Amino acid sequence: MSDELNSLSNPIAGNQALLENQSENETRDLAVCVEGAWKNYGYWWKSMTALRDVTLHVPTGNIYGLLGPSGCGKTTLLRCIVGRLQLNRGEVTVLGQRPGSRGHEVPGRAVGFMPQETALYKDFSISEMLHYFGHLHDMNRKDILSREKFLLSFLDLPSRSKKICQLSGGQQRRVSLACALLQQPQLLLLDEPTVGVDPLLREKIWSHLIHISQTSRTTIIITTHYIEEARKANRVGLMRSGRMLAEDEPSRLLTIYNQTSLENVFLHLCLEDQNRLQPNLMNSTNENDQTNTTVSINNQNIPPPDVVNGETPHSQIRRKELVKNPVLRAKRAAVDCCICPKAHKIYASMVKDLTMIKRSIGFLIFQFFIPVVQISLFCLCIGRDPQHVPMALFNSEAINGFPTGNLSLELLNKINSEQVHFTPFNDFTNAMNAVKEGHYWGVAVFRYNFSQAIINKLIFAKTDPATLNASSIHLYLDMTNQQVSFVMQNVILTSTQLFLKDVLSHHKVDPALADPPVIVEIPVYGAKGQKFLNFAAPGMMISIIFFLAIGLTALIFVVEKKEGLLERSWIAGVTTVEVMLAHIIVKFFIQFIQIILMIIFADVIFQVKIEGPVILAMALIFLQGICGMSYGLLISAMCEQEVEVMEVALGSVFPILLSSGVIWPAEGMPPIMRFLSNFTPLTHVVEAMRCIVSRAWTLVYFKVWFGFVISGAWTCGFFTLAAILFALRK
Ligand SMILES: Nc1ncnc2c1ncn2[C@@H]1O[C@H](COP(=O)(O)OP(=O)(O)OP(=O)(O)O)[C@@H](O)[C@H]1O
């Protein structure tokens, strides 16, 4: 007894002695065994230690009350036990194995976890929520319904069809508890299950927990702020500042510390701890060479941990049992990615995704039409020739009463007024001023003897400078808009060529003389009047689906992550691969309809003719959509908040779009950019799409199959990185 007293008054020494003397039988009978656990949050340059050499032993079939003030590390410890967080140092054994080891059902069916936050899908009904977890645990419908009936009445919940968002905070927590109890797990981890519960129901919950621990040997770890209710536990652990102050049966703690309540025992231990801290704190402040972290550790006679190496005498004792963390984490991350997906978990995740979609039909319809609206706007606004371009006209020949003929009028009649619209001016200076003020895109000037000069040049072959000058239209252009000035010049040049032919025919000269010595034969691919739209539309179709998939996937996963929903599903045993596969399958149908609608609009309404197999074009767009989803998943693995997702997604949209030759041909880029553009996820896929759409190429052509290969490779790359990152960021 005196040994025990010693060990309790000196907790670390006590824990150490306990560890060293533990018999093998006892260890085997432990449902949860945590030894020398160290856990840091953050990175080495800014880390925060949440657990400091914590040791915890929970025998099978026991109720363990984990007590301590807010922020002492209870939730962190539970998340380590359940396999969601990896320790920086130390070892956790749950139901005989390391959590997350192959074939182990922790995380999975063997553990029921009720997190502190509600972590429920707010638009689901109570029944849908229970069915989701039931399907994840591979329970059949009959079992789910019978458990649902029991839990609804036991936890005093309203109708099964009531939506979670319509429940009070306390009722939502009880639904959360119901989800944890649903599959009758071997191990129950409940993070403050009795908060917001009335005393009668609290009593009922405790009776049930005692009942299942006695009849089914369920092991229960429960954290609570109501210290006195933990008296019903078989064992309690008292934590403070990431350390375990004491761990024993409640009655023994009361006896040892000669107190009447656990509250007082805890107070006593805290005071003792505080007294131990105080002198060392002073010392350390005087020495002025230690951080706050090291101070608190010093006070327990434990030398400061090196955050990176985590070395302490205590951990050195068990050095052989502990495994170096970074290698271990990398190995475990790789193993996480290689777990074979299970059909029932994919099914459960799919039902969950479909239920979410069912709850927001309006948003679903909106999703169908986003690509249609985008491609329509693109086809309407981009790539068409500018029309009704306003130009000023100073026709000196007309002002002077056509002294040498009216050929200038004939030429002006040839210019399509739909494209260039002339406004006549009687004064050249006024016309120029109007251009300078931005009312017109330029001035076209005819000399007073234009008609005579044209005849002299064409019929009498006069080529003196005065004739050449007078027989030309002089254009003074505002060239600030390249596209507008290009169209103006092009229209005037083409019309002038037609005009010259007319003049030649009129004077019985072969009009072919006016043709330039270039003959554009029937094009190998495409049509003679090919528009910019035909070049850009294939790339846009790919880009629209790609970027839409990025945004939606990243947002969905980050919201689920932030609200603890993803973590809860992971603890129920779902892997990232399963979640993602379910997401892709459900999104398949949405994307399928999006792609069909987009192609119908582009092809039928906006005449972007798809010369090659439509199925091949659709398959490529679809594959790129999956690539976008994988990239979205990677973004959600990196980000914690929606705003971060928006920043990363938007920040990558333009660089990818601009450098992949979607908007402007890659041939126009500087050599270095052209080389770099090979490494965007869009460049080769867009090129393959153009080949299918404009050249009618199929998979036998290198550029087409290479596009498919590149899209698949980026998809696998993003997906693998996301899965590893999710596993590593535990
Ligand atoms: N993701 C995180 N990143 C950084 N620090 C964290 C993170 N989660 C918890 N912490 C810190 O770790 C310490 C322990 O937190 P934890 O949530 O485990 O405490 P707790 O005992 O469960 O508190 P409560 O009873 O209020 O839930 C706290 O100081 C907290 O600020």
Automatic annotation (TrEMBL):
SMART domains: AAA (SM00382). The keyword Nucleotide-binding applies. One of its GO terms (cellular component) is ATP-binding cassette (ABC) transporter complex. It comes from the Eukaryota. It is found in: Membrane. It is a multi-pass membrane protein. SUPFAM superfamilies: P-loop containing nucleoside triphosphate hydrolases. Residues 485-729 form the ABC transmembrane type-2 domain. This is Uncharacterized protein. It comes from Adineta steineri.
